[in-house]
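User: Predict the full complex structure for these chains.
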Amino acid sequence: MPTQKTIAATGNTVVAEAMRQCAPDVMAAYPITPQTTIVEEFAAFVAKGRVHTEYITVESEHSAMSACVGASAAGARVMTATSSQGLALMWEELHIAAGMRLPIVMANANRALSAPINIHCDHGDIMGARDTGWIALFAETAQEAYDNTIMSVRIAENESVLLPVMSCLDGFITTHSIDRVQVMDDESVAGFVGEYTPANALLDLENPVTHGSFAGLGGPYFEFKKAQREAIERSRKVINDVGAEFSELSGRPFGMIETWGMEDAEVAIVVIGSTAGNVRHVARGLRDAGAKVGVVKVRCFRPFPFAEIAEALAGLKAVAVLDRAESFGAEGGPLFLEVRSALYDNAERVPVIDYIYGLGGSDVKLELIESVYKDLSDIAAGVEAPAGLVYLGSR
Amino acid sequence: MHEIRWHGRGGQGAVTSSKILAEAAFRSGWSGVTAAPSFGAERRGAPITASTRMDREPIRILSQVTTPDVVVVLDDSLLAVANPAAGLKPGGVVIVNTVRPRAELAIPADVRVVTADVTGSALAAGVVVGGQPMVNTAILGSIAAATKLVTLESVEAAIADAFPPGPAAKNIEAARLAFQCTNA
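Assistant: Here is the predicted structure of the two-chain assembly.
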């Protein structure tokens, strides 16, 4: 069993620590805002000789992911981190990394996109990247951010998957808050992630291959995309298996969704990211007062856990989805669209209400969560559900 | 659960200190500890707030503190632009770095206020950066004295962990002096 040390640290610090323990061959990063202190702290590890990583400072996030793509194609274990506009600037290469089936692991501090200018938390950046072909894990806490980072390496590099993984944590909330975290010893993490053996390395001169070449009209582009779909479908089992193995090692549970109070809940909130903590806190208080409320936290957004969500929410009287991102012109936010779609094949129709909240770091006060549960209990009691989405806590 | 709200100005180190306090609380035996900064415009001198929470159980709330038990005011000029007593819980305390008498401070009379010359403590210990006394670590001593939520020893250990040895010694001395001069 691993030796675990309990420390008080920020999400950024423990993600940098996890990356050091996973010992990537290459990290490429653009080290100014909107970058995170993850790459800053990692650079310090490199400078002090605590990790032997080729650390490439580049001139933009576009170049950062380009360098990651090149290094990963060459056969290196590659990690990086980004946030907000930085992720947006990586847009082209996000698709290329996934299309070339490169197991890059990247942390993203979930933050708002301009305009207007805002540096704070929401999921606009990562939700915008949800169809780039990356696997996307979400952390509620610094602990989960640490754990997800380590698991990401195993998931990405699994030979039946070979896809890049984004390990997402809420900017300025999980990234910058001090929290209690259990950190494993270096040997246990190294043993868990193992040595990386690239499947199709460009620098394997004995077995020459080409990556990402022209596959236009008449070429296999269409089939490549189908193969990506099949790979991310296969990743479901890998994510669960790696999660189970990591749970055994760490003593901390992992599931693509995490439920609280759902055994006999009549109403529930579905949430992703750090707000799950506030929701569980409010739910606990309501439970103590006798209300049958539950919480469903989504820990993996891509692939989306459709079956798990459909099962967890079956038979409820009302469901609220909390979306920290917009999908302008759609029926609701990104999480809502997935959740309601997941429920379509259930026999009984459950009213699902979408709440857009916390955009640009707007504070998620407990009263707001209480008001959502109040709405749900009203709907369960027969009050008509609101038509359309609700902007929770906006002025 | 104990909730602490910091009022400072950009560059004064309130965010750093909210983290050091969380570390000190952890060392004082609180098993649930969080420190959540609130970043605004990243501009020197702009009023900012930060939050620290401590509990015997793990804490999962990460919103900003709006109903504090303890409010820490890094300099009394902030009393003109921020309302430190806003949302203060009954029995709560406001800790102010000032040399002015309590009666002169723009804080309602029924609020418990603890004052200390924290700037004086920082100057006496030589905690000066760019010609300005840094009060953020010194005031941790006043918090220990006024609230008893953390021990002075845990504050010293947390400061020692946050700085290289030379600066750490000065900052620890400043916290000690502030601890002594706080009229709790």
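The radius of gyration of chain B is 15 Å.
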